[in-house]
Specification:
May play a role in muscle cell metabolism. The chain is mostly helical. It folds into two domains: 3-110, Cytochrome b5-like heme/steroid binding domain (Flavocytochrome B2, Chain A, domain 1, Roll); 111-430, no CATH class. Helices cover 49% and strands 2% of the residues. It contains 19 helices and three strands. The chain has helices spanning 27-38, 64-70, 76-82, 87-91, 115-126, 137-160, 163-184, 202-213, 223-226, 241-245, 247-256, 258-274, 286-292, 297-320, 342-348, 360-365, 370-375, 388-398, 407-419, and strands at residues 44-46, 49-51, 96-99. Strands 1-2-3 form a three-stranded antiparallel beta sheet. Helix 11 (247-256) crosses helix 14 (297-320). The longest helix is centred in the middle third of the chain and has 24 residues, at 137-160. The two termini are 26 Å apart. 47% of the residues are buried.
Amino acid sequence: MGAKERKESTLIGLKYPSFRDKAWKTGASWLDGKRKDDGIEGLWRVGDKLYDLAQWIGNHPGGAEWLTLSKGTDITEAFEAHHITSFAEQLLPKFYVRDATTPRSSPLTFKPDGFYRVFKSRAREALKGVDFHKPAKLSNFIIDSLCAGTLALCVTASATQSWAAIIAAAIFLTLTLIAGHNYIHLRDSFRMAYMDLSFLSSKEWRITHCLSHHLYANTILDFELSAFEPLFDYVPHEKGFITRRLSWLYSPLVYAIVYFVSGVKRIYSLAFEWCTLDYRDLTPFLIPALMCSVAPPSLALVTWMKVIVISSFHFGLIGVNAAHHHPDIYHDGDVHREDLDWGLAQIDAVRDRVEIQSSPFLVLTHLGWHTLHHLLPTVDHSYLHLCEPAFEQTCKEFGVNTDLWTQWKLFKGQFMQLQNTEPKKTPNTR
């Protein structure tokens, strides 16, 4: 959406984001816009109270980065969704500064008898038998195996120039990165840097995916909804011929350059926004360095680019068609349900796929249990199935449909949504 066709959110009360009409969007610019819109002045807001968490940054169990990134913003949604137990809620008053004097930029609610709070209390009970604050051993085994396979296949591809090895390396790299997505939501660990083996940035993803998309899915505050505009425009409003009719034709090219665009943004942010490096910024050099050890550098780097292009296409194909886009899924512009419970807003913006749910491997590598993942983002994917009975019970009480869709329905629906110019006039709910 360009500035001339700016539209207010149909989630009544959601402030139009300052970042959204910029042509060049990064995680840092999204945060800058949110700080401007929230007006917290260097504090952290939860509900209608302001807190100074500066002294807690070094002690935060999830890692300091979550608090350093979110400083100066309203973290209500993140605070609620990221903390399953009541420990954080009990600790928070120690850092109270004063009451907020302005309304929140988001109208979403967390009422004690609302969908999300009721579900979370049941999920907490369902997870009592596992240490859900740590990743599951099964998830660790899967992602470590995928990473080892990626390194071995990339070295083999460099040494042999075999297309079979190149394609296999690209597939393994994609699956490693998607599995790594599980870890960027969790406490800091070296496994979150698996996403950085390509040109993607786990730090950037913690902003654009964890703090933006996951908390405001399919609204104008969702970075991922606007990331591909104007090439992919999912908001139901008047669109040009190219976007509506030709997106299916150029989408493979867009998928194939996702890593490269991310790499350029990463370099830009490091140079002009973050102005600092950490160990994750060196991770993208690991695989090409290994490949150069078994082949002339020029040949190794050409092989690496082949792996990157194929993997980027594969990553885009899975990610864009995973869960969020179909005319029967809520997108900002559609009429929103009257109940502004945060959990219900998440549920309306996502669907799950029948082909993925039954396999722990596919769940981790193909973004499975996606609704539960949105509701409980800091719970490892391998534990989410434990919360299904609580989810089903709560959905039944609140009249929410939990039918699974097929991957084909979502794949077709993604292109149908790109063509969609007619917002739903009645609430687009499950």
